[in-house]
Amino acid sequence: RRAAPTRRTALVLCWQMKSDSTKRYTTTALEKRTATKMSLKPNYILKYTLTGHTKAVSSVKFSLDEKWIASSSADKTVKIWSAEDAKIERTITGHKMGISDVAWSHDSKLLVTASDDKTLKIWDFQTGKCLKTLKGHGNYVYCCNFNPQSNLIVSGSFDETVRIWDVRNGKCLKTLPAHSDPVSAVNFNRDGSLIVSSSYDGLCRIWDTASGQCMKTLIDDDNPPVSFVKFSPNGKYILAATLDNTLKLWDYSKGKCLKTYTGHKNSKYCIFANFSVTGGKWIVCGSEDNMVYIWNLQTKEIVQKLEGHT
User: pLDDT by residue (tens digit) across 135-152?
Assistant: First the structure.
């Protein structure tokens, strides 16, 4: 039942903050207060266009050491690019069908991929060798992530389950009957004790990693399909995308929506969103009008649109 968690992008584009952009760091208390009031804006410019995949690119991730970029594609491959000069380092092959997601371990030594061939594969980054094939899902595997300790992997599938896997031996530790529609995203919190999952059934659920118990269910008033979810860097909030052109920031412990971000187009595809907190505090998300939107996290104002995709 391909109820449409589908991603569709053609190229991988990299933007860089202009070096002469608005000052991002302040020193005195007065400057900090002034900077907050000014609602500083980012100033990204297109730096690289990465070409090489022969079919749609489904996922793109920086390694946590910031040296590499991994991209997955419907062409059944993962490509590794240098973040320094955008040159291709290697192409990883082995899946029998298209790949929907790729994720790095936190030490940047391993990769995990989720494929329509119903498996996940763990790869050694240095050699490109497949270390383990994780079998158990009964339908397309759509999303995956490592925990911060990188000894566990979580995956979500069109079979409507979330599975937790042991990285060392490749065994499935838990199968969570998580949702009643395909699972669109899975993510660990900052210490790995919780997992959040989202689904086309309109729900976001928080799970205890150790027990597999559902700790919380978040549901929107209108119940639109949830196409993406992830924890904030501090672990206190979750960012959820829904197919009604909306992003929402939730305080999941209270079950309360704190912020709503709109202006982009997202009614058809599962598009990644993210927090940017190293300089200003932004929310970043792709859009079906071929642009990347950046919002001020606090004011919800659109502060930049990145053009380049067609």
Answer: 999 999 999 999 999 999
Structure-token match 């291709």, residue found = 88
Give 175-198 pLDDT, tens digit per residue: 999 999 999 999 999 999 999 999
* CA dist 42 → 21, 90, 280 (Å): 7, 32, 7
Q: To which residue do tokens 């790869």 refer?
A: 123
- Dihedral sign of CA atoms 144, 148, 153, 154 in order: negative
**How many residues in total does the chain contain?**
310
Who contacts 19 (Cβ-Cβ below 8 Å, separation ≥6)? Answer: none
Q: What whole-number distance in Å separates Cα of residue 283 and Cα of residue 273?
A: 7
Residue at 230: amino acid letter: K
* Pairwise CA distance, residues 69 & 80, whole Å: 6
Q: What are phi and psi of 19, to 5 degrees?
A: -65, -25
b/e string for 191-201 if b means 16 or more Cβ within 10 A? Answer: ebebbbbbbbb
**230 — pLDDT class (breaks 50, 70, 90):** very high
Strand 194-199 to 57-62 pairing: unpaired
Strand partners, 72: 59, 78
State the Cα–Cα distance between residues 203 and 223, nearest whole angstrom. 8
Residue 271 near residue 286 (C-beta atoms within 8 A):
yes
Give the sign of the dihedral formed by CA 133, CA 134, CA 139, CA 140.
negative
Please name the helix (run of DSSP H) or strand (run of DSSP E) that holds residue 50, with its range, or none.
strand 44-50
Distance CA 237, CA 234 (A): 8
* Selection from 73, 59, 53 nearest residue 145 by Cα: 59
Give one word for 58, left, alpha or beta, with left for phi > 0 and alpha for psi -120 to 50: alpha
Query: Which residues partner with 92 through β-bridges?
Result: 78
- CA dist., res. 63 & res. 110, Å (int): 10
Euclidean distance between CA atoms 101 and 103, whole angstroms? 7
End-to-end CA distance of the chain: 29
